[in-house]
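Methods, example record. To illustrate the input and output format used throughout this study, we show the complete record for DUF1003 domain-containing protein. The sequence lines were provided to the predictor; the line carrying C-alpha cells was produced by it.
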Amino acid sequence: MAAPQSADMQSVLHNNIQALVDHRREQEQHRAFQDRIAGVISRFAGSMAFVYLHLAILIVWVALNLGAIRAIPPWDPSFVILAMVASVEAIFLSTFVLINQNRMAELSERRAELNLQISLLNEHETTRLIEMMSALTERLKVPTPADDELPQLAQNVDPQAVMSQIERVSDNQTER
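The corresponding predicted structure is encoded as:
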C-alpha cells in the first residue's frame, strides 16, 4: 500500500517542479530587453572566460606598448589609455552587476513572500487538524498527553502579532 502513495508523492513533486520551471521561464520571457542584456553581461563578467579574455588583452596591450613587436608602434607607452579603458569598463560592469543584484533581490523577496504564504496556509491546516483530532479524542474519550496544550495549539497564529514580537525582541537586542 505504501508504493502507490510514494508514486503519488513523486508525481506531486514532479508537477510542483515543473510548475516552478514553467513559471521561471515565463518570468524570464517577460523581462525587459535591457534587463536580459544586463543579466547576460553580468553572467559573462562573472566567468573564467571573462578573466582569460582580459588577461590576454592585458598581456597583448602591455607587450605591444613596451615595443615587443617593432612593426607596431606603441600607442599607449604610459598606459594611461589602458587605465582609462579599465576604469570605464569597471563603471559599466559594476552597474550591470547592480542591476542583476537588484533583480535577484526582487526574486528573493517574492520567494520569501511565497514561503510565508505557504507557511501560513500550513499553520492554518495544522490548526484545523488539531481541532479535528481534539474532537475525535474527546468524542472517543481518549486522553492524550497534549490535552492541556490543545486549546493553545488549536488557535491560529496571528502573523501581525508574531512580527510585532520579532520587532520588539530585535529592538531590545539592538538597544543593548
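Annotations derived from this record:
Residues 134 and 147 are 8 Å apart (CA to CA).
Residues 31-161 form one domain.
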